[in-house]
Description:
Low-confidence stretches: none
Distance between the termini: 16 Å
Radius of gyration: 15 Å
Strand order of the largest sheet: 1-2-3-4-5-6-8-7
Structural class: alpha+beta
Order of helices and strands: EEHHEEEHEHEE
Mean pLDDT: 96
Number of helices: 4
Bound molecules: coenzyme A
Amino acid sequence: xxxxxxxxxLEGDRVILRDWRDEDxxxxxxxxxxxxxxxxxxxxxxxxxxxxxxxxxRQREKRAAGTVLALAIQGRDDERALGNVNLARLDxxxxxxxxxxxxxxxxxxxxxxxxxxxxxxxxGSANLELERIEFAILPENLASQHVAERIGAxxxxxxxxxxxxxxxxxxxxxxTVSR
Length: 179
Ligand SMILES: CC(C)(COP(=O)(O)OP(=O)(O)OC[C@H]1O[C@@H](n2cnc3c(N)ncnc32)[C@H](O)[C@@H]1OP(=O)(O)O)[C@@H](O)C(=O)NCCC(=O)NCCS
């Protein structure tokens, strides 16, 4: 796989995906402490500007290391970061990756993640030669499973006790999309 680009901007009909910037740090505040976000990502459990800046910096470091490609999701008509979408496990080869995403609460319910994840998957297929992208979702997270379904992913069953969070192991519903 080629190195991940230092800069990336993807434009779709409904969303723009672009690099995280230091000035986006306050965008993390509404999801800091939210269980569905913090148990599955490195977003801090409580907000401080320093922690949020460190999170943004970690996204740059992971990109440089070739492990994770994270992009801020913004709408078409305003520059604010409304959420994150990423491809992870890019260093494991085999033309596979895992996808993750979150939106701030005010941006949910409008299909923005479906648009953002589709755009990133299409880019990853074309530019990183990815052939299989995996979603690992808590079985009760129906909104996220709807996103996977809308994108054309197929349910592959439950991977038992496969995610560690909050001191216990959680079953995860696995969906995959092949391109
Ligand atoms: C999961 C998440 C990304 C969904 O993004 P979204 O843009 O708000 O998704 P949408 O509102 O378009 O909902 C997607 C689908 O799920 C459905 N849905 C939404 N909430 C639902 C719920 N509580 N129960 C059942 N279905 C639900 C919607 O109707 C929609 O279906 P449709 O496309 O057939 O109309 C967003 O809720 C979020 O950021 N949650 C917190 C973080 C998280 O859970 N991330 C994923 C971890 S795997």
